[in-house]
């Protein structure tokens, strides 16, 4: 703990609280204060790279579905499918959140956010091959307290929060949280009476009741309900393709404030809610405790995306009369899950032990529609109209391109122990763990092209998918306290995510699990009277059976068509993972703390041949490169915090900067360039960029004699108005398109604590 920083940092990487500096693994922890300093409303706001090894981005420009990667591992390809899993496990108060569609909602009263880097398969299980994101909210205190927060900013943004702790009554403590946030579009849509691009409305509430009748037993029940309305990003055209552009089309090489064409834009609506019951029982204090976490969650998510109009405003002939454009992509997603975990843990003088079992069941379903909403009315493409008719007045009448549903079940049993042998003055610690998991999935592809699927043999009817896998994940770890403030460690851990089926595939064929095995060595040190903290870790690992998407033509019997489908395979060969992570925090003088963090992440996926025939019936042996998504080779962050108490108030000042070297946003697309099945686009990498955020506040201002304290603050995200194209997609005919980072945003807010 840096002496200038009043916060105490504990982590739960081992599923029990321990000091951050004593945890032998690479972990980054953001406290509530650090999140407030960055004006983080939802996980989307961490997409600026505040934690270098963690990457959070919108899937294909949709704020409603997030991509989460750690150390370059997470998901390749489409993350928006019910029978496909993520590689980063996201947990909220011990409950696994299975779907990325549920991650864009406003955050409740977060106490801390932990990023556990590297495979967590032993303690956390499936879908943690890259690591885990562990979010912990504040618990009821049993004492009366209330915090009110309100603020406004540019783009007509506003934010409000209520956090109410009620006095305990008959050993029952209750806490209520309510949040709301709004932002107008960042890019204006010229079409009136429809949504703009990249706007949001979020609100939700959370109620928690904690019953503590005796010292050794606690029952904690929580319910949350969230609403998230967002619109897609506007995709800009940077360079034209080989097709001839309509006259109305414009190249937008700097961040657009206004789209050059008006299109119908509908907000995506996400609704989530969930129940959690956590029971803690200390059977034999210190030696044996039990914990039960029971949860049920559900979500519904509509996804609308009409922000890619620029890419469809072209054709080979250059004659535009009657040509439709602005492809609107609609996707619905519905999911519910139940989970039950039972943990047993305790410790003696030399042994810390824990074990547990978990059951997880999920039902998920999706559908998709795609249709054009605009049409050119003259030959040069300088004028256009909206398409009208029943299906355009009610998009629910549009044909269903595809639909599927799947049920997933998972069981796991694990054990983990840390032993301190009576040698070397109790400075050596040995850890061993093991988890057995079993995963099963049963799904059905029910619709393709608004009718029953037709498989490649020409047989029509729903196509079933049924598969199961078992897996063992070990953990071995050695750590040593070189001094009281110096920890050295080495570990080997593994993790995996199950296989599944691609709902974009014609035959809904199964693919198998992928896995990561990783070695990590590191040190955690504090010196100069704890005014300097330096943590560093290096890792290398094996990336195996990587799930990769490839396109193939739609086939009816022996007839191949130009319409493509997407199937997923486990790429042959082994990939490589390696990197270095470092964090340095320095308190050079009283009241001032300076922090630096850096990550080098290297991911190599073996070039892979498309195993499917093309529309000419040819199978190519050409190996195509596979690019890992959302993984800059170099990324870093700095932060400066100044906390100075004065008579009657405290001055707080914060500045942080986040930089990366750019990354790929597409894996590969062997469709566009070259001849036959040897076609390939060598995808461009996004631009590097530096995003700076700042906040200044006056806190602990006493209001009269009521005991009420106020905090007045000003904040800014992207303080210096940096702009860069972080996401680039290249099509030979459609050209180079991109998403830009968000413009400068700023505002002020007031918080009252009673």
UniProtKB/TrEMBL annotation:
<keyword id="KW-0410">Iron transport</keyword>
<comment type="similarity">
    <text>Belongs to the TonB-dependent receptor family.</text>
</comment>
<keyword id="KW-0813">Transport</keyword>
<keyword id="KW-0675">Receptor</keyword>
<dbReference type="InterPro" id="IPR036942">
    <property type="entry name" value="Beta-barrel_TonB_sf"/>
</dbReference>
<keyword id="KW-0998">Cell outer membrane</keyword>
<feature type="domain" description="TonB-dependent receptor plug">
    <location>
        <begin position="22"/>
        <end position="131"/>
    </location>
</feature>
<keyword id="KW-0406">Ion transport</keyword>
<dbReference type="Pfam" id="PF07715">
    <property type="entry name" value="Plug"/>
</dbReference>
<keyword id="KW-0472">Membrane</keyword>
<keyword id="KW-0408">Iron</keyword>
<protein>
    <submittedName>
        <fullName>TonB-dependent receptor plug domain-containing protein</fullName>
    </submittedName>
</protein>
<keyword id="KW-1134">Transmembrane beta strand</keyword>
<dbReference type="InterPro" id="IPR039426">
    <property type="entry name" value="TonB-dep_rcpt-like"/>
</dbReference>
<keyword id="KW-0798">TonB box</keyword>
<dbReference type="InterPro" id="IPR012910">
    <property type="entry name" value="Plug_dom"/>
</dbReference>
<keyword id="KW-0812">Transmembrane</keyword>
